[in-house]
Amino acid sequence: MDFLTNPNVLFYIAAYLIGGIPFGYILAKIFAKVDIKKSGSHSIGATNVLRVVKQKDEKLAKKLAIATVVFDALKGAVLVLIAKFLGFPPAVWWMVGIMTVLGHCYSIFLRFEGGKGVATGMGVLLVLLPIETLIGIVVWALVAKTTKISSLASLSGLIAVIVASFIIHPELPHVKSHAPLLLLAFIIVYKHLPNIVRLIQGKEGKVAT
């Protein structure tokens, strides 16, 4: 029973549950009256919000996609900031971030389905590795602009963050290991496996703007 009253464990559970709030699904349902879990890629992320809602209202689709990115990123950033503010050790900050991304990708509210974890992971890393994450965002933007392929842009940005982290911080501050970052990256890459297969086959769709 001590396990269930441990503050760290309670925070991890809260992070998973809050991470699981499907903002893209909720926004599309309320404002566009569409179920993005039944259309497009069935993901709850901004790309699928844009793709599905655009069929009804292009301007609304862009607004909801932006709102989805913002809210999903805030989930990650705010929870890590709270962990820091409450005085938890750095290892807990990382674990809170990982649990938030895990909750987003495998939401208990959607029968353990969810999004790809990119925006939520970005929010987490903006707090923990701000310089590396800004580099990743620049790479993401450049790839997205030139290729119009969301998954390729996201994976390129993630790779940029990892490479930059090894260059800037041979050992991550406080935790002395890149293991937490690599675990976070593994979750995001794993969720992108179908996209990676389509990229290799040359079948990955583009997002029209």
Question: Please, could you describe this protein's structure?
Answer:
The chain has one domain (2-201). It is built from eleven helices and no strands. The chain is an all-alpha fold. The chain is globular and about 50 Å long. It has helices at residues 2-5, 7-19, 23-32, 46-53, 58-85, 90-105, 118-128, 130-147, 150-168, 179-191, 193-201. α5 packs antiparallel against α6 (90-105), α6 (90-105) packs antiparallel against α7 and α6 packs parallel to α10 (179-191). The mean pLDDT is 92. The N and C termini lie far apart (52 Å).
Alpha-carbon distance between the termini?
A: 52 Å
Poorly predicted spans: none
Can you summarize the main beta sheet?
A: none
SS class: mainly alpha
Shape: globular
Q: Roughly how many Å is the radius of gyration? A: 17 Å
Strand-residue proportion:
under 5%
Per DSSP, the total helix count is: 11
How many structural domains can be distinguished in the coordinates?
A: 1
Number of strands: 0
What series of H and E elements makes up the topology? HHHHHHHHHHH
- The average pLDDT score comes to 92
Proportion of helical residues: over 70%
Pfam families: G3P_acyltransf
Organism: Nitratiruptor tergarcus DSM 16512
Catalytic activity: an acyl phosphate + sn-glycerol 3-phosphate = a 1-acyl-sn-glycero-3-phosphate + phosphate
Membrane topology: Multi-pass membrane protein
